[in-house]
Amino acid sequence: MLFGVLAQTLPKKANVQGVGTFLYLLLTLTSGFIVWPIAIPSYWKWLFYVNPMAWSMQGMASNQFLSTKFLAYECEIDGLVFTLSESALMSPRGWASGGRVWIGYSFAFLLPYTLLFGIITWLALKYVRIEPDRQHVKKDVSIGKDKKTEEITVPFIPVDLSFENLVYEVTASTSKDKLRLLNEVSGVFKAGR
What are phi and psi of 32, to 5 degrees? Predict the structure, then answer.
């Protein structure tokens, strides 16, 4: 939803890609997936708590590691048997260990977050108007012996167009035969040509 807001409010595709890439990197690093929450510096901790990816990871970690499959999980290392518990799985990495209640907290954060950014996207679609770049074309106008050049603003963005093996058939007006007007034509049209 955050990237939808960026796409609706920033005027150029390059701006959306630049800002979006930076935000994605920042959100991924502070989500707890690449860098454990305990290793996130204290001055970035606020970003961990407003990060929807972090809340998703907390909910998934609580769901996975607190399932009945892992509550009494025993592992053997060098002949020693260890019993893993919630505190052994979650706390050393910085995840909140308070039981399965964190799954509900994750939904309690993510649902309003999605609703808020949905409303922001709707408002951006309604009130933010990003006009496309206009192509200026010079046209020679002749009236009698006077010749002048005027500039016309074309209301569309110029694009390159390519086509390959284009076939166009029509029904003949005198019979039911098909007339092939274009037979596997390929080509390229450059903008402004």
Answer: 95, 0
Judge whether residue 129 has pLDDT over 90.
no
Q: Are 83 and 74 in contact (CB under 8 A)?
A: yes
Split at pLDDT 50, 70, 90, the class of 140 is low
d(CA 1, CA 193): 39
CA distance 61 to 16: 31
Instruction: Tell whether the model's pLDDT for residue 52 goes beyond 80.
Output: yes
Kindly report the backbone phi and psi dihedral angles of residue 63, in degrees, each rounded to the nearest multiple of 5, phi listed first: -65, -45
Which phi and psi angles does 83 have, rounded to 5°?
-105, 120
Q: Provide the CA 24 distance to its chain's centre, in angstroms.
A: 9
Q: How confident is the model at residue 166 (pLDDT cuts 50, 70, 90)?
A: very high
Give the DSSP H/E element, type plus range, for residue 171: strand 161-171
Instruction: Give whole-number Cα distances, 5 to 11, 137, 178, in Å.
Output: 12, 34, 50
- Domain ranges within the chain, ordered by starting residue: 2-127
Single pTM value for the model:
0.58
DSSP conformation letters of 96-165: --S-THHHHHHHHHHHHHHHHHHHHHHHHHHH---PPPPEEEEEEEEETTEEEEEEEEESS----EEEEE
Which residues have a Cβ under 8 Å from the Cβ of 28 and sit 6 or more positions away?
A: 34, 53
